[in-house]
């Protein structure tokens, strides 16, 4: 390179080139310089909030990626990553000069165009969704995005306080967990500390000062432990390096907050890392260390045999220390250590002909799963919340009966596991066998358990399942299945409601001319009849009004004879579009009517409901309803029970209800005096006859003065 040319290149770019020269050929470093000049021209006249020329930011991002040893295309894309959004530079010029791959990377990293969103959360969620799709095409997109966020966090001080807090929260909620999920612990740690400092500056300062103080007091003790570990490993002929590990301010604060521990409790641990040359030496070192200090029972984890979902590998053990505090040891090879720090960026391989490292393979599998999830999820915000669940670092490792390992989020249940095996297995699950013992689907699972799912063709998801699962995959699959079932139920119920309304007009749906029906659907912006029927069932369109329009001009000869409206019969299986009024709790056998509530569908009430008079003020929303001959399900009902005020009475009543084969949902005291108490029980019954049986059993208890259905 000529001296004259070097003079035109700023010091930060020369430093970048020096880093790149360590692992890239000269002609590729020259391409990076060309990218710098292209970016500098595009950003000419633009400055950052701090007052520096804007081009210093993309150069800093490229430097962070150079420290990871990333390829030329990634470095060039990092230098140009803001040009498409913030400058007139066209994509075509990037593509013609640097190739289509660089143009794709830049486009993938580019933020959303200035679209008007309802709120900041929607904008962030949609931006993340777009980023995910770009990640699926090329993993390097997320590496550039993480480096971009890391430099922005390092220079956050020039931003307004409100912006600092928003960016810090987003970093802690999304970007740091993504870095951890991709195995990039060095990135994750710095992002967390910078986010913590920006969000809670006083807490960060206090925790940091106390960590420094504790380490100062412990330096001698840590030196002795480190020397003892090193000496034992030398004696066992295990080539190794022993390093003390220092907790970061964020990890310390997070552990205090999550585990409700004091600072002294969190810091009352000595941490060390042992780096060896080969995998088998990890186990040799473990034996040597266990012969030096006694291990704590149940605190050994083998992440080499069973790596974490992000590819992390290491042996973890906790020992009884010589100074009264536990010693935490991590043992790994140098290659595992590099993979733990850099994750997907370690030994970067992009060409598919070459083998990717474990972290890259796992990351691609994870992102492929997220892409499948987002394709089913209509709401960006809802999708982002589901992804956050999968970003939590703690996992449980489970085995299938054939020995396959599954990694699930912490607190996962047997139902979560079923959906990880296959969506169809989850949708038809009825029970599980955990270590060969029968267990319900809501059973929480622990690492190391072998899980088998029992299925039945007739089984299908229930709304309650959403309360049993913690993983995004299971939640999305259940919600989609319920939406499908709800749509089918809505179409079927809407059909019955429209048929009833048309019969009152003296016609049937089949008798309506196809042109008339198509014109109505087009005017109402429905593509299919099913959409209209579902809209009716959901209360967004009145069946009588639709029937009047469709029957316009049709013969009404029989109208007078058919004026008596037939009831819409329900079986109770239409739970997707039917709900039952909490004010009167109808059960099969009660005289009922339906009230169309917009967006919620039909709410079923008893004819003698306390609110019936109010509902009848809008007669167009009233639906004549009755129970079908075969009704399924359990129905909630409330009982007001007056009992003697003495010990053991609650157990007596509960036993009587249980003897009547009824579940108790809730109990509360309503009134109490010296002699009597009034209890309100919420129970489940099959129908009115079952309710009477339960009430009779309760009446027979010698402590009961009266049993009444509420409301009467």
Features:
712 residues; alpha+beta; Hypothetical protein af1432; Beta Polymerase, domain 2; 4 domains; 49% helix; globular; disordered N terminus
Question: In short, what is this structure?
Answer:
By secondary structure, this protein is of the alpha+beta class.
Query: In CATH, what is the homologous superfamily of the largest domain?
Result: Hypothetical protein af1432
Shape: globular
- CATH-assigned fold name of the largest domain: Hypothetical protein af1432
Which structural class do the helices and strands define? alpha+beta
CATH architecture of the largest domain: Orthogonal Bundle
Strand order of the largest sheet: 1-2-5-4-3
Helix content: 40-55%
The helix tally amounts to 28
CATH class of the largest domain: Mainly Alpha
Distance between the termini: 94 Å
Q: What fraction of residues sit in β-strands?
A: 15-25%
Number of separate strands = 19
Pick out the low-confidence regions. Answer: 1-7, 112-119, 349-355, 556-564
Largest sheet: 5 strands, mixed
**Average pLDDT taken over every residue:** 83
Walk me through this protein's architecture.
A hairpin with a 2-residue loop joins β8 and β9. The chain has 28 helices and 19 strands. With 712 residues, the chain is of the alpha+beta class. The radius of gyration is 33 Å and the shape is globular. α22 packs across α25. It has four domains: 199 residues, Hypothetical protein af1432, CATH 1.10.3210; 144 residues, Beta Polymerase, domain 2, CATH 3.30.460; 148 residues, no CATH class; 76 residues, ACT domain (Alpha-Beta Plaits, 2-Layer Sandwich). The strands form five sheets. A five-stranded mixed beta sheet has the order 1-2-5-4-3. Strands 11-15-13-14-12 form a five-stranded mixed beta sheet, with helices on one face. It has a four-stranded antiparallel beta sheet with strand order 17-18-16-19, with helices on one face.
């Amino acid at each position: 390179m000529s001296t004259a040319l070097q003079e035109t290149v700023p010091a930060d770019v020369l430093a970048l080139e020096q880093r790149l020269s360590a692992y890239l050929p000269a002609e590729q470093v020259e391409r990076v310089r060309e990218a710098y000049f292209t970016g500098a021209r595009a950003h000419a006249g633009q400055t950052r909030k701090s007052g520096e020329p804007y081009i210093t930011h993309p150069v800093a991002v490229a430097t962070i990626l150079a420290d990871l040893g990333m390829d030329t295309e990634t470095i060039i894309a990092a230098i140009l990553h803001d040009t498409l959004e913030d400058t007139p530079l066209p994509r075509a010029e990037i593509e013609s000069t640097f190739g289509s791959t660089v143009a794709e990377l830049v486009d993938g990293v580019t933020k959303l165009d200035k679209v008007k969103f309802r709120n900041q959360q929607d904008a962030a969620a949609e931006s993340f969704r777009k980023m995910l799709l770009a990640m699926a095409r090329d993993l390097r997109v997320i590496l550039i995005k993480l480096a971009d966020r890391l430099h922005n966090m390092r220079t956050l001080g020039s931003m307004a306080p409100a912006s600092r807090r928003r960016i810090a929260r987003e970093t802690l909620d999304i970007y740091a967990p993504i870095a951890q999920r991709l195995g990039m612990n060095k990135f994750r740690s710095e992002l967390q500390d910078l986010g913590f400092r920006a969000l809670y500056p006083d807490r960060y300062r206090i925790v940091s000062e106390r960590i420094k103080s504790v380490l100062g007091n412990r330096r001698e003790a840590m030196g002795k432990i480190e020397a003892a570990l090193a000496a034992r490993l030398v004696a066992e002929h295990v080539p190794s390096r022993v390093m003390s590990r220092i907790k970061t301010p964020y990890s310390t604060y997070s552990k205090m907050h999550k585990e409700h521990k004091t600072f002294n409790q969190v810091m009352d641990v000595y941490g060390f890392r042992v780096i060896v040359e080969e995998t088998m030496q990890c186990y040799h070192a473990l034996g040597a260390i266990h012969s030096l200090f006694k291990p704590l029972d149940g605190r050994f984890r083998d992440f080499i045999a069973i790596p974490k979902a992000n590819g992390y590998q290491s042996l973890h053990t906790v020992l009884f220390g010589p100074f009264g505090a536990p010693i935490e040891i991590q043992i790994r090879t140098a290659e595992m250590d590099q993979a733990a720090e850099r994750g997907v960026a370690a030994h970067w391989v992009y060409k598919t002909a070459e083998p990717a490292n474990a972290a890259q393979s796992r990351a691609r599998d994870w992102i492929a799963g997220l892409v499948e999830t987002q394709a089913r999820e209509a709401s960006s915000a809802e999708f982002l919340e589901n992804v956050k669940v999968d970003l939590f670092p703690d996992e449980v490792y489970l085995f299938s009966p054939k020995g396959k390992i599954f990694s699930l989020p912490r607190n996962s249940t047997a139902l979560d596991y079923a959906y990880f095996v296959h969506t169809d297995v989850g949708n038809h699950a009825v029970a599980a066998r955990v270590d060969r013992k029968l267990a319900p689907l809501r059973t929480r699972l622990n690492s190391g358990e072998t899980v088998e799912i029992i299925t039945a063709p007739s089984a299908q998801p229930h709304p309650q399942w959403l309360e049993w699962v913690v993983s995004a995959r299971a939640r999305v699959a259940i919600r989609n299945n319920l939406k499908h079932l709800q749509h089918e139920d809505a179409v079927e119920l809407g059909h019955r409601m429209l048929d009833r309304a048309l019969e009152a007009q003296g016609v049937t749906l089949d008798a309506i001319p196809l042109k008339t029906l198509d014109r109505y659907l087009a005017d109402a912006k429905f593509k299919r009849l099913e959409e209209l029927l579902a809209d009716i069932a959901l209360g967004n369109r009145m069946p009588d009004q639709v029937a009047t329009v469709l029957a316009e001009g049709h013969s009404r000869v029989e109208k007078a004879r058919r004026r008596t409206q037939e009831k819409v019969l329900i079986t109770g299986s239409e739970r997707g579009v039917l709900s039952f009024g909490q004010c009167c709790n109808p059960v099969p056998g009660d005289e009922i009517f339906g009230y169309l509530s917009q967006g919620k569908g039909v709410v079923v009430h008893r004819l003698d409901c306390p609110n019936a008079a109010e509902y009848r003020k809008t007669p167009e929303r009233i639906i004549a309803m009755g129970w079908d001959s075969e009704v399924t399900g359990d129905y909630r009902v409330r009982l007001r029970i007056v009992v003697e005020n003495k010990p053991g009475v609650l157990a007596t009543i509960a036993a009587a209800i249980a003897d009547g084969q009824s579940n108790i949902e809730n109990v509360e005291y309503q009134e109490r005096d010296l002699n009597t108490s009034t209890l309100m029980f919420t129970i489940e019954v099959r129908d009115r006859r079952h309710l009477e049986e339960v009430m009779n059993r309760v009446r027979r208890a010698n402590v009961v003065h009266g049993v009444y259905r509420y409301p009467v």
